[in-house]
Amino acid sequence: MAATSAGRVLTLCRQFQNAFRISTTLSAQQSTVTLTKGRSYPHRLPSTLLSSSWSCNLDLAVQCRPLHTTISRRGLEEFFDIPENWGEATVKSGAPWTAKQLRTKSNEDLHKLWYVLLKEKNMLLTIEQESKRQGQQMPSPERLKKIDRSIRRLDTVVKERENALRLLQTGQERARPGDWRKDVFGRIYWYRFREHALPWYMNRRYKRKRFYTPAFVAPHLRLRLEKYLRAKTRKQKKESENQAVLKEKFPQMQAKSQ
Amino acid sequence: MASRLIYPLYQMGNPQLRIFRPPFFLTLVRPGKEQPPDVVQFRIPMVMTKFDVRNYVEKIYNVPVGAVRTRIQYAQPLVIGTNKKRNHLNQKVKRPDYKVAYVQLAQQQTFEFPDIFPKKDVKSAEGSVEEMQEKFMEDEEQRQKPDPRRGGVTEWFGL
């Protein structure tokens, strides 16, 4: 495996990722395996993928390069940084993953990247807690923010893909079913369904939650509507007055575009 | 799965629930009280159980796990006994509670929490601000030191 003395930079930072792809002509999804130089977390999956592809590849007239991927056996050491970085004031790290970059990756790659980011975040949290315990400064705390952003963006991309698939296959816009319902205050809101073991008419707690507006709330509804309309007109009037004053001061001013 | 997990209802005969892309993060902590050599202490999210912790550590970190024990730690305020702490908006504040897991390693493995902040002799770069500052501080310290010719005798008294 490549030397582990290279920094953690390489796992996270796209610019330093000198990915070399080992691809066969079999099929795109099965064969692309992206490996990063230096700090890497080769999981069992790449080696199994490779072995299956190599075994049926021998008949094809394609150049096969035998590759061995060692499974990382570092265990609990992965909760800490590499020993060269212990005691340093700053640790170099690359830019976080952007959503645009993540959208180019396949689902398997995203799945693996999730675990890479998860382990990295665990490591950073461990260091942070230990630094608080020892009364020392954590080296490069901005790494936590970068990892958080990467994880959030990965989540967004996966959600987008799931949404698209669901829309294409079933036409459902939402993953979780729901309905427009009225609450006791007369407000209409989107109620999201939950799973229950009983039907609703046998669920006592559910029946206590009223999805209708009682009759005595009707005057309050009207008052609330009036208040809302009054506030709206007030705002519009203020805006138009403001525009008029500005027009007087600056006659050449263009009207504000909505 | 995503950040806001909704677990499906389990009824007997349902398939085993699986979570892909778990949004749970573990923090390895140095034990406050002395622990046996094969015990590793974690801070885990409140929603995780012993089984979750075991699967997490075994599958993601390849570490053989024997037993897992958990407890919930109430986050004490700085002044233990009062709960009157308020922030600049006069809202009552409380530090979040957390769950602690004691994971006992299998196969007679041991774990010792390492020292992550060893003292390193840092030499500042030549001609940099840090180097000048350090030199200045060294000169100041030298000036403050008593006369070495007096052999440790104080300068309070004359001669």
Automatic annotation (TrEMBL), chain A:
Keywords: Mitochondrion, Ribonucleoprotein, Ribosomal protein. One of its GO terms (molecular function) is structural constituent of ribosome. Gene3D superfamilies: 6.10.330.20. The keyword Ribosomal protein applies. It holds the Pfam family MRP-L47. InterPro entries: MRP-L47_sf, Ribosomal_uL29_mit, Ribosomal_uL29_sf. Residues 238-250 have a biased composition (Basic and acidic residues). Residues 233-258 are annotated as: Disordered. The keyword Cytoplasm does not apply. GO terms for biological process: mitochondrial translation. It is found in: Mitochondrion. Its main location: mitochondrion. One of its GO terms (cellular component) is mitochondrial large ribosomal subunit. Belongs to the universal ribosomal protein uL29 family. This is Large ribosomal subunit protein uL29m.
From TrEMBL, chain B:
Residues 132-152 have a biased composition (Basic and acidic residues). Signal peptide: none annotated. Its main location: mitochondrion. Residues 124-159 are annotated as: Disordered. It is found in: Mitochondrion. InterPro entries: Nucleotide-bd_a/b_plait_sf, Ribosomal_uL23-like, Ribosomal_uL23/eL15/eS24_sf. GO terms for cellular component: mitochondrial large ribosomal subunit. SUPFAM superfamilies: Ribosomal proteins S24e, L23 and L15e (SSF54189). This is Large ribosomal subunit protein uL23m. One of its GO terms (molecular function) is structural constituent of ribosome. It comes from the Eukaryota. GO terms for biological process: mitochondrial translation. The keyword Ribonucleoprotein applies. The keyword Mitochondrion applies. Keywords: Mitochondrion, Ribonucleoprotein, Ribosomal protein. Pfam families: Ribosomal_L23 (PF00276). Belongs to the universal ribosomal protein uL23 family.
